[in-house]
Specification:
This protein is about 45% helix and about 20% strand. The chain is of the alpha/beta class and about 600 residues long. Among the domains are: about 150 residues, P-loop containing nucleotide triphosphate hydrolases (Rossmann fold, 3-Layer(aba) Sandwich), CATH 3.40.50.300; about 55 residues, no CATH class; about 80 residues, Valyl-tRNA synthetase, C-terminal domain (Helix Hairpins), CATH 1.10.287.380. The strands form five sheets. The protein has a six-stranded mixed β-sheet with strand order 5-6-7-3-8-9, with helices on both faces. Strands 14-17-18-12-19-20 form a six-stranded mixed β-sheet, sandwiched between helices. A three-stranded antiparallel β-sheet has the order 2-1-4, with no helix packed on it.
Length: about 600
């Protein structure tokens, strides 16, 4: 770390429930660090955040903060009690931001801060919390699941803001795409220890596998089995990744089959052939469906045939009509025009965002097995403790009250309960909220093995790319894009459709050239040249970083080519350092120009 840290913890230790949650941790955060904090649910990530923020006391250790450093935490579940409106929340506390700063950021996020806090949605509350945190001009920003409840447009905005941010941040997130795009180093909290590597999340899995492989070799040398209860190595890191790769290849084949059924227009009809095989496999058929609320069209002339085994992803901004479309497809809502036909044998299970089935006073066994020892898992009788292990729980948690579980553990428990039920249609509304990365991988496996049809509403781009066969994209106009593939396929389709508009816009300056920006008298020739050229260089560095992170994400790279892995890591560190310096230089010049 070239610059001295703005915050450090040395020999940090904390007890929880009579055991050490972690011991002898050293944490150093530099002034421009972009850190991903990784660890399983229950490892202590949020607790470590609170220790970094100075919100709780440690049992041992020394915390040092550079004088004047402003630390701001975006909590996963902020407390809105006692606040009449979202603005009241944003301006609460002794260290509140300026109202005009909050209003400026809220306007960019598209949130009305005069909304009553009591009736605000999860997305509105998350935007208000973001507006408060970002408006406080932090030197160190702690982000605990920042993309939860945000739609894709808001996530894009937040990513852009963080790319321009001059301070340091640490992020806990299940959103792989978010972490890959933004982080340049990783903190891994694992079994009470904290490791750091100067590689962003794109290279984390390769590093993780390398560490576990080294531990396994060390254990073999000692002629002892390394105990990693409910952990990746016990399940077999390499075996799991090979299995996941096989599932991805099967997913790609399913997408190719679906693409062959797509009509040439590519947006209106999917699989509306009338051959017997297609018709007998159909579970939901929507024909020329439209829905309005007042004068506003929500869904217009939508046609789709969903077949048994399809995994359908639904994406779009908040308010674009995702929930309406989901309700139309499941028969919960009748269309204004057109018809939706459901197979008579359809038996659906819906896992909603509210997690309403979980009440704090119940125990884990109450939720899974109605207080008993056995659970019927789609016709197969299993002991409740064995079934808990399949969902990465310690079997000893069977009598733990729901109130004692973390948000991620509660989400995982609900998934375990619902996947046990007999069904042939599964509806998942934002299923990735509060899940850790291991549980997300498990969820992908369970969905891949599920024999029925799955409808998924999600903002998690990586999850959709790894899971769905068809994506339904809503832009708020009422039209629905139907694309064989995941989020990336839908995004590519959108760019392709808007390419003619961009080409026309690019031609416009040829007939009416815009005057060049005036050269500031405050800049020397070299300053002006840097100001003009650095944005393009930063884009080049972004592309280099993305390419190297993608290469490092290959789990076999280190084993296959250790030298290449080392060279790529070094090149990545250099590119990140150059990018950080270029951003710092350009921001300094921009401030002088604007001043």
């Amino acid at each position: 770390m070239a610059e001295p840290p703005i915050l450090s913890w040395e020999n940090l230790a904390l007890q929880q429930g009579g055991r050490w949650l972690f011991k002898d941790l050293d944490v150093h955060i530099g002034p421009r660090d972009r850190l991903a904090l990784i660890g399983r649910n229950g490892a202590g990530k949020t607790t470590l955040f609170r220790l970094i923020a100075g919100q709780i006391e440690a049992d041992r250790g020394t915390r040092s903060v550079q004088p004047g450093t402003r630390i701001v935490a975006l909590e996963q579940d902020p407390d809105f009690s006692g606040c009449a409106t979202l603005m009241d929340f944003a301006l609460s506390g002794d260290d509140a931001p300026a109202r005009y700063e909050v209003e400026a950021i809220a306007g960019q996020l598209g949130i009305a801060m005069d909304r009553p806090a009591a009736t605000a949605s999860g997305g509105e509350r998350r935007r208000a919390a973001l507006a408060r945190a970002l408006a406080m001009d932090p030197d160190l920003l702690l982000l605990d699941e920042p993309t939860n409840h945000l739609d894709l447009a808001a996530i894009d905005w937040l990513e852009s803001w963080l790319m321009r941010f001059k301070g340091a941040f640490v992020a806990i997130s299940h959103d792989r795409t978010f972490l890959k795009r933004l982080t340049s180093a990783t903190l891994w909290l694992d079994r009470g220890a904290l490791r750091r590597k100067e590689v962003g999340f794109g290279g984390y899995e390769a590093w993780e596998e390398q560490v576990y492989a080294e531990e396994a070799r060390a254990a073999d040398k000692l002629d002892a089995r390394l105990k990693l209860e409910a952990h990746w190595l016990e399940r077999g890191v390499t075996a799991r990744r090979k299995r996941n790769q096989g599932r991805l290849e099967a997913l790609y084949r399913m997408r190719a089959q679906r693409a062959s059924m797509l009509n040439p227009a590519g947006t209106a009809k999917l699989g509306l052939g009338h051959d017997d095989e297609v018709r007998t496999k159909s579970v939901i058929v929507a024909e020329n469906v439209s829905k309005r609320y007042g004068e506003r069209p929500i869904i217009k002339n939508f046609t789709l045939r969903i077949q048994r085994g399809d995994r359908i992803g639904v994406v779009g901004a908040n308010g674009a009509g995702k929930t309406t479309l989901l309700k139309l497809l499941t028969g919960e809502l009748a269309p204004d025009e057109g018809e939706v036909t459901l197979a008579k044998t359809l038996n659906g299970v819906m896992i909603d965002q509210q997690r309403s089935l979980l009440t704090p006073d119940k125990r884990v066994r109450d939720v899974l097995a109605e207080g008993g020892d056995w659970i019927d898992v789609r016709g197969v009788r299993k002991h409740v403790q064995g079934y808990l292990k399949e969902f990465l729980f310690d079997p000893a948690l069977v009598d733990t009250p729901i109130a004692a579980l973390s948000g991620g553990e509660r989400s995982r428990l609900l998934l375990a309960r619902e996947f046990a039920r007999r069904s042939n249609l599964l509806v998942l509304d934002e299923p990735t909220n509060d899940l850790d990365l291991e549980t997300l991988d498990l969820l992908q496996e369970v969905i891949a093995d599920y024999e029925g049809t799955v409808l998924i509403v999600s903002h998690d781009r990586d999850f959709l790319d790894r899971t769905v066969t068809v994506t339904l994209g809503l832009d708020g106009s009422g039209m629905v894009d139907v694309v064989a593939g995941g989020y990336a396929d839908w995004e590519a389709k959108r760019k392709e459709r808007h390419a003619p508009e961009r080409r026309e816009a690019a031609k416009a300056p040829a007939t009416a050239p815009a005057p060049p920006p005036p050269r500031s008298a405050k800049l020397t020739y070299k300053d002006q040249r840097d100001y003009d050229l650095l944005p393009a260089r930063i884009e080049e560095l972004d592309a280099e970083i993305a390419r190297d992170e993608a290469a490092l994400s290959d789990p076999q790279l280190y084993t296959r080519d250790p030298g290449g892995f080392a060279r790529l890591t070094a090149a990545l560190d250099r590119a990140r350092a150059e990018k950080a310096a270029a951003e710092e230089r350009w921001l300094e010049l921009a401030e002088r120009v604007e001043g």
